[in-house]
Amino acid sequence: MTALRCSRIPYFSGVQDIAIERLAEDRLKLTCRTGGKQRAFEAGHIGLHEGVIPEQHIARSAGCAYRWDDVTLSFTPVRDRELESSVPGIFIAGDAGGTGGAMAAVAEGEIAAIAILRRLEKISPTAASRGYKQAERERAAHLAPRPLLDRLYRPTPSVAAPADDAVICRCEEIGCREIRAAIAAGCDGPNQLKAFLRTGMGPCQGRLCGTTISMLIAAQRKVSPDEAGFYTVRSPLSPVTVGELADLSEDSELPPDSTT
Known about the structure:
Layout: H1 2-6, E1 16-24, E2 27-34, E3 37-43, H2 57-61, E4 66-69, E5 74-77, H3 102-119, H4 125-143, H5 146-152, E6 167-169, E7 174-175, H6 176-184, H7 190-197, H8 210-221, H9 225-228, H10 242-246
Antiparallel strand pairs: 1-2, 2-3, 4-5, 6-7
Helix pairs in contact: 3-4, 6-8
């Protein structure tokens, strides 16, 4: 932050109602509201970031349960003290279980590994207990600032209530106005919305739009995002061609760039 101030680059906080539009092939325009004023900026490149949220697709495809976190505006997996998910034998460690940073992720990996080794009887109960306590202390220390950071830098309210002309599903180029119209017409969940508009059916498989879709449905139906739900995730988790599927046999494997 000190380097930013010394560089004399303008810095604005409390920004809301962000909108980005293309003016030309190599020119973009950003408009926003901050400090009670409407501002506009033009640039060749614009980056937009509203925080990091857990990747859900792999765990959801295995049937793991998730719950809504109203502070980070994201779905996080249900885990026990050993980081085991709602599906026995599946452990979720690191940022996939909730954003905590690299060092907290290392500690969570150790906690999950110790739990697995203990169940396989590869380490003694005493060694498992000692290792767990040490890893848990490290994890707690690294996660200690998170409650403050999550509340201090909570995503702006406009994330949950984008403008009607905002593009929500970038893969299929579907705007917020169309989505709200579908919900008003009776669409009551993300899976049904696929049939209405094909949201979440592009190359990203709903990774980019899924959480926003859930928030839009929840807001318009006046229910919680948990009740609104999320896309049902099925394999393959990345797009594959018809040719790749046709070439499959019981003993064959998908190419490395088509992971399931």
